Amino acid sequence: MKKPKVVVLGAGYGGLMTVTRLTKHVGVNEAEITLVNKHNYHYETTWLHEACAGTLHHDRCRYEIKSVINTSRINFVQDTVTGININEKKVTLSNGELEYDYLVIALGAMPETFGIAGLKEYAFSISNINGARQLREHIEYQFATFNNDAEKKKERLSIIVGGAGFTGIEFLGELCNRVPELCREYDIDQKNVRIICVEAAPTVLPGFDPGLVDYAVNYLEGKGVEFKIGTAIKECTPDGIIVSKDDKQEEIKAGTVVWAAGVRGNSIVEEAGFENNRGRVKVNPHLLVEGHDDVFIIGDCSLIINEENNRPYPPTAQIAMQQGVTCAKNIGRLIRGQDNLEEFTPDIKGTVASLGEHNAVGVVYGKNLTGTKASIMKKVIDNRSLFLVGGPGLVLKKGKFKFF
Ligand code: FAD
Ligand code: NAD
Q1: Residue 1 reports pLDDT greater than 80
Q2: Which residues form the FAD/NAD(P)-binding domain (predicted)?
Q3: Is 316 touching ligand 2 by the criterion CB < 6 Å?
Q4: Does the beta carbon of 318 lie inside 6 Å of ligand 1?
Q5: CA dist 322 → 41, 128, 388 (Å)
Q6: For residue 45, how far is its CA from the centre of ligand 1 (angstroms)?
Q7: Could you identify the atom of ligand 1 that is nearest to the CA of residue 171?
Q8: pLDDT level of residue 300 (50, 70, 90 thresholds)
Q9: Which pLDDT tens digit goes with each residue over 77-92?
Q10: Is the distance from the beta carbon of residue 389 to the nearest atom of ligand 1 less than 6 Å?
């Protein structure tokens, strides 16, 4: 009998958890499993703020996909997904196409620029390894050229971070460690450097515990970060940004603008014709798309509602990985014709945001943590995620062990 074809798109947190668990829930002769990813490596999206700032080499944030999957069971295809045809059950790739019986879409997020002029052209984002390399090098170039410039324009050393959500705050923490290093390396007085964070909401880390927000703000301000709260970025130009507060506009000049003010689901999902909200598709409790019992969507492309507040869960790696486990179980059951599909309920263990290498704020199992304790917890979380995908070998190879 022809084996059903299971195709998993994306080897991020959701996709890798799905395929590593599929080999446990689906027998050798039960299905053909294919994993597609545009690179031959997986990157830890959750560590990219470090690679972008230059506090962690980008090679520490990535590993070869084939090193963590069972290649005798999973056919890995390195290619870019260009489209999904749900009627013909086909996926088009840059270099071919694939047919599927069951599809898992785990293509992650893209920056959401809300149509703000100039952001796509002039701002950097924190979204993948290539972008991280560019941003790190761009910042270093600004420092390297400062003393050569006869005018020594200070704006060259101004770094604007748009958005004080978790990504923005974690990146600011890394910049606070990196900037003193760059000043030493390029003989620059740190007084010439400005790190400015612009946040549209009335507070940093909207919705987070106010005590932890105060801790993070005080720490970052102590390191020289200037916060402009209740201030929205309206435009990005080759010279900086235009912001608006209380109907007054202001230009802030800067050599580097980083847009960390939100994400959306992958545009491939929108183009496939699923009903979606900024590239995120509401999935049913089994993680299937309503009306398509052969298409699972997980991770940042999926939208699930928190019954407690009737709002979507924020897209996180924590949820993407847990969805991968449920998705693999459900594919196994569908292949065997069983109708007892598992319902997905996120098990939120907590949220920790790093503030550079040795500081952090977070809530873990309902308990607030700050400082070294929170920072150690953050590294434990990072190592746990490696363990879940690649076991102790991957933790030893890529784990974070510098706790103090
Ligand atoms: P991803 O892990 O992003 O993987 C998507 C994969 O699809 C990638 O391998 C990509 O290369 C591939 N891909 C994309 N498009 C194509 C295509 N067209 N063709 C082929 N392949 C493609 N969440 C937490 O829970 N905890 C944290 O501490 C945390 N920290 C974060 C820090 C930062 C700086 C950022 C940016 C995010 C952080 N998040 C965190 C959020 C978390 O990273 C995402 O929610 C998570 O990565 C989503 O997983 P995913 O599997 O949906 O997508
Ligand atoms: P976010 O949507 O959580 O935060 C974006 C911030 O940008 C918001 O505070 C918003 O008010 C602000 N903003 C929006 N438009 C603006 C404008 N025009 N000008 C100025 N500010 C503007 O996005 P994120 O921080 O990238 O996080 C994305 C997802 O990843 C979230 O679900 C988050 O929980 C997750 N994440 C988690 C961690 C962690 O757990 N440590 C770290 C990073 C990201």
Answers
A1: no
A2: 5-324
A3: yes
A4: yes
A5: 21, 22, 10
A6: 5
A7: 34
A8: very high
A9: 999 999 999 999 999 9
A10: no
Mean pLDDT of the chain: 97
Nearest residue (by CA) to ligand 1, atom 38, is 46
The model's pTM: 0.97
Model pLDDT, residue 236: 98
CA dist 92 and 81 (Å) reads: 6
Active site positions, annotated: 170
Residue spans of beta strands (DSSP E) within 126-239: 158-162, 194-199, 225-229, 232-237
d(CA 171, CA 363): 19
Domains of the chain: 5-38+79-111+264-348 (3.50.50.100), 119-261 (3.50.50.60)
**Residues 6+ away with beta carbon under 8 Å from 358:** 372, 375, 404
Assess whether the C-beta atom of 126 lies below 6 angstroms from ligand 2: no
- Rounded to whole angstroms, the Cα distance separating 363 from 15 reads 27
Cα of 198 vs centre of ligand 2, distance in Å, is 12
Q: Which atom of ligand 2 is nearest to the CA of 205?
A: 9
Q: Is 299 in the pocket of ligand 1 (CB under 6 A)?
A: yes
The answer to whether 388 and 380 have CB atoms below 8 angstroms apart is no
Secondary structure of residue 87 in the 3-state scheme: coil
Band of residue 150 on the pLDDT scale cut at 50, 70, 90:
confident
The reported pLDDT for the residue numbered 242 is 98
User: Which atom of ligand 1 is found nearest the CA of 381?
Assistant: 28
Taking residues 120-126, report their average pLDDT: 98
315 CB under 6 A from ligand 1?
yes
Average pLDDT over residues 217-229: 98
Strands 74-78 and 124-125 turn out to be unpaired
